[in-house]
Amino acid sequence: MAKDLHRPVDIAVDGSEMVYFTEVPDPGVGGGANGVSSLDLDTGVVTRLHSGEPEPTNIAVDRDGDLYWTCKTAGVILRRSNGKVSVFRDKLDHPSGIAIDHKGEMLYFTEVPTPGVPGDQGGKNRVRAIDLRTGALRTIHTGDPEPTDVAVARNGNLYWTCTSAGVIVEAKRRGGRDGRY
Q1: 3, 50 in Cβ contact below 8 A?
Q2: In the CATH hierarchy, which fold is given to the domain comprising 1-92?
Q3: pTM (2 decimals)?
């Protein structure tokens, strides 16, 4: 599909035509070769959509085609909408994994400022959610030693990998649209 990439890290698919991916050949280095690109599955053409972030880690695409990605070392989630990139959320603590529910209402992400350190030993890692309509930020879970990536099922249940513990964790959704777990 695509070759000669520079350390591709994450991937997301929009329908069946476009693949989006992050490349991080220089982790933590702003202004370098790190970036977000698309791969047109019909033509095989790779297009650079954004460059210069120090560590564009994981990426998600919503049902409208807007892209969201975490930038771990900058502590931000960026959004690309209508061809323009902007900071969607800042002042985050090493955001890593990212997912959007199938309705396009909630964005979930992980923060891993203390990789490998469980909460009962002072770890500050967590799984969080942002309501995409209101911007409200909520913590879903804390205490795991390294919640690296996150996925959301159609029924709203969350799943995340915990790299250092070697497990996948499930949080079952309870209740209505507010997404309580």
Answers
A1: no
A2: Thrombin, subunit H (2.40.10)
A3: 0.93
